[in-house]
Amino acid sequence: MSQDHTHNHGDHHQQTFLEKYIFPVDHKRIAAQYLTTGMFMGLLGGFFAYVFRSQQAHPGHEVPLYGLVNANQYNALTTSHGTLMIFWFAMPVLVAAFGNFLIPLMIGADDMVFPRINRLSYQIFFLSTVILIASFFAPGGAFGGGWTAYPPLSSTAQFSTTPWGSTMWIVAVGLEFVAFLLGGINFIVTLMNARAPGMRMYDIPIVLWTIVIASILFMASVGPLLAGAIMLIFDQTMHIGFYDPQKGGDPVLWQHLFWFFGHPEVYVVLLPAMGIVAEIITVFSRKKLFGYRTVLFTMFGTGVLSFVVWAHHQFIAGIDPRMSNLFTVTTILISIPVTEMCFVYIATLYKGSIELTTAMLFALSFLAAFLMGGVTGIFLGASGADTYLHDTYFVIAHFHYTFVPIAILAGLAGMYFWYPKMYGRMMNETLGKIHFWGTFIPFNCIFIPLFYTGAAGDQRRVYNYENFPHTATDLHYLRQFATASVIVMLLFQIPFLYNYFVSMFKGKIAGKNPWQSNTLEWVAESPPPHGNFSEFPNVYRPPYEYSVPGRDKDFWPQNEPT
Amino acid sequence: MMEHVITEASSYAAQIDHLIDLIFIIVGVWFLAAEGLLFYFIIHYRRKKQPQAGYVTGERLHHTKWIHRAHYGVILCDVFILYFAVLAWHHVKQELPEPETTIRIVGEQWAWKFTDPGLDNELDTADDVVTVDELHLMVNTVYNFKLEAKDVVHSFSVPVFRLKQDAIPGRVITGWFLPTKVGEYDIQCTQMCGLGHGIMGAKLIVETKEQHRAWLRQQHGGSQASVPNTNDIQNVSQNKPNGLFAKK
Amino acid sequence: MSFQRPMATERSATGISTCKLGVYWVIGSEIVIFGGLLAAYVMFRLAHGSWAHESAHTNVVAGGTNTLVLLTSSLFAVLAHQAAERKDTESAFKFLWCTIGGALTFLLIKSFEWGGEIHHGLTIHKSLFWAFYYTAAGIHAAHVICGAIIMAIIAADVKKHKDLQRVEAIGLYWHFVDIVWIFLFPLLYIAK
Lengths: 562, 248, 192
Prior knowledge:
The structure holds three protein chains of three kinds. Chain A is mainly α. Chain A has helices at residues 17-22, 27-57, 71-106, 115-135, 157-160, 163-193, 206-238, 251-285, 292-305, 321-349, 358-381, 383-389, 393-423, 429-455, 476-491, 493-506. Chain A has 16 helices and no strands. Mean pLDDT of chain A is 94; it is low at 1-11. Classes of the chains: A mainly alpha, B alpha+beta, C mainly alpha.
C-alpha cells in the first residue's frame, strides 16, 4: 500500500485560463505546449521543403503559395528547414513532449520534481521560437549559411549579407539549448529519484531510459557548442575574430565545436525514437522485449561511442588527413551497437502475435526505413568513399532515412499510441492507415531517387542544377519525381490533422488501458487528472511481461501485486 | 557499377568507385537479409495466424547466439570495409606524388580562379595564365594543386575525378590528381558559401599536352588582360598555413 | 494561487535529495560549457606562442586577491550550510550574506581591474588572447552574479525557516563557481 498521498485538491480554487494553459506547471500541459509548438514548426519546415524542392524541380518558376525563389531565399529556406526540423520539431516532440508527458506517468509519480523549472524551460523555448521566426522577417533576410553555420560566412555580415538574420539565428539556437538543458535536468533527476516503490533499474520502461540517456548525451555534448555560439555572437556583433584567420582565429574551430555536439545530437533524437518503438512493438506483438539488458547496454555503448566519431563530418574539411583514419575507424565501429539494437528489435517479433494497428505500422516502418539509413551511413563513414560522396545528395538521402524515421515515423507512432491516454479517446484507425501509407510510400519516393542523383554528382544547397551542364543532366526527371512526392506526402498529413483534432471530441471513449499494456501510465485515468493517480502505484515486476506462460491474461501490469 | 553512374576521369576514380561498389554489395546483403527477416516475421506472426505469442526473454543462449553470430558477421564486414577505405583515403589524401605540374586554385565569392604555371612550368612567374571559372588540364599528367580561399570556406569538387577538398581562408591546402580522360566536365563548389554558392560552378577541360600548350600560347598571344600582375600573385601566396589543425 | 510542491520532489530512490541531485546535474552541464571554452583557449594558446607576451599584462595582484576573496566566500558558504544543518537560520542567513559580500567584493575588484586594462587599451579587440580573457572571465562573472542573486533569494527563504535544504545546494554551486576561477586564474593570469 503506497505511503504517498495526493495533495488535497478539494480546497484549491479553480485554475484560471492563464494558470492552466499559458503558465502551467503540470507536466502534461507543458508536454502539450511543446507538442503544439513542435508540430507547428514541423509543418512549417515541411512547407519550406516543398518550396525549395519546387524551385529545384522548376527553376525560375513561381512556386504556388510562395512566389519566386531567388538564390538568397533558397539558401535561407534550406537553412531554416534543417534548423527547424532538428531543433524545433524533432527535439521538442521526441524529447520534450514525450519526455514530459511520459516520465512522471510511467514511474508512478504526480509530476516532475522541479515543475517550475519545467515551466521555465518551455518559456525559454518559446522565446527562442519567437526569435527564430522573427529572424525570417529581419532586414537582410533570414540566415542562409546552412544549419551548420560555418564561419567566416556565418560570422561576417559582409559575406552572409544577413547581419540581423545571422545573429538572431544563433541567439535562438543558443536559447533553445538552454531550454533543453533545463528540461533535461528535470528528466534525469525525476527518473533517478521519483520512481514508484519497487521500480528498480531493470524495471524502468525502455522509453524512459532512452529519453534520459538522450538528455545526458545532450548535456555532455552541447557545452562546447554553447561556448562556441557565444564566440560566434561576439564575432558577429563585435568583430572579435575567434573564427577569423586574419585576426589569428580559426574557422575550423567552429566545425569541431559544432560537430562534437552535432554527432551525439543525432543519437539524442534517435534514442527516444527507439524507445517509443520498443514500447509499441512489445504491446502489439504481446511479447517481452528481447534482451532488455542488451538493449540497455548497447544504448550506453552507442552513447559513449557517439563522442568519438564527430570528425567524420570533416574528413575533407582541412583537418589532418591522419585524423581522418582514426575517425573512420570509430565511425564504422559505431554501426555495431546500433545494428545490434535493430536486430534485437526484430527478434522481439519472433514468436509474437502481431496486431497491425496504425501505431504498430509506424513503429515497424521505423525499423524498415532506419535500416536503410543505417547502411547508407557506411558509405559516408568510410573516408575513402566519403571523399566523393561528401556534400552530395547521397548525404541528404542518408540522413533523411535516419531523421524522417526518427522524427516522423517514430514520432507519429508515439502519437497514435499515447493519444488515448492524452485525450481519453481513440483515433480513427481507417484514417490512420490512410495516413500511414500516404506518408511511408511517398517518403521512400522522395529519397531513393536522391541517393542516385547524389551518386551521379548532385551537390547540396544548389538552387539551380542548370548551372552544372555536365552533371546528371538526364536525371532532372528524378528531381521532379522527388518533388512531386514531397507534395503528396504533405497532403497526406491532412487526414492525420483532421483525425487528431476531430477524435478529441468524436473519438470512441478510450478507458484506462485500451491497448492492454503493462506500464504504469495505463493505470491512470484517460486523460490523467492533475496529480495523475488517485492511489500511487507500487511496482512488482519488469515492464514487458506479456504472454507469460500459465497465466490466463496475456499481459501482467507492473503494478498488480504478485 | 559506379562508372555507369558517372564517368571516371582520374587515376584514383576507379579505386574509389570499387570501394563504393564493395560497400554497396556488403551492406546490400545485410540490408536485404534484415529487411527480409523483418517482413517474414511480420507476415508469419500476424495475429490471424498466431493468436497466442510465446514468452522469449532474449537472455538464453539458445536465442541470443543468433544475435551474437550476426554481431560478429557485422564486425568482420566492418573491418574488411575499413581496410579498403583507409587504403583509398591514404592514396588520395595522404600520398603526394611528385608532380609534373603544380597549379593554384583560389575560391572566392563566387568564382574559381585558376593559375596555370605556364610554359615554364613554374608558378609565380610572368608567363602564368590566370583563368576564371575555367580550368585547362593536361591528360595523363600528375598535378599538384595548391588550394586557397579568399573569404569564406569553399570546397573544390570535381565529381568525375572523385575529388573533393574544402578551401579554408588563411590556409594553403595541397592535393593531387591525375586526369585520365579527355573531355569537358563540371567543377562545383561544395561548401555553402553564400548567395552565389549555386552559381559557383566552373568548366573543366581535360586536353592533350599539345592542345594545352597551344592554349597557353594563345593566352599570351591573345588579350593582354589574361597576363597576370606578378604582384597580385605574390600577395595571394602570402597566406601562410594557419589554424590549429592545418594540413601541411 | 500558491504553488504546491508535488510528492515526486520528496521521493528519493537514490538516497540523495532531489535538490542536491539537481544541482549536481546543473554543475555537470556547466563543466562541459566551461570545459569547451577553456579547451579551445588552451589549443589556441599552444598554437600561438605570442600569447605569452600578451598575457604578461594581466593583473596578477587583482587576480590573486580575487582568488582569495572567492575562497573565503566559499568558506562562508560552508559555514552557512553547517548552520542550516543545525536549523540555526539566523547564522545561516548571516553567512549566506557574507558569501554574497564576497561575490560583490570579487565583482568590485574586477571592475577596477578591467577599468584599468581598458583604459590602457587592453580591450577585447586588442588580440585574440584578450578576447578569450574577457569572454571566459566575463562568462564566469555572469555566473557569479546569477549565483549571488539566487543565494539572496534562498537567504530570504531561510530567514522564514523555508527550504533549508537549498543552502547546501547553492553552496555546492558556489564551490563550482570557485573551482572554475581556480582554473581560470592560472590559465589566464599566471601562464606566461
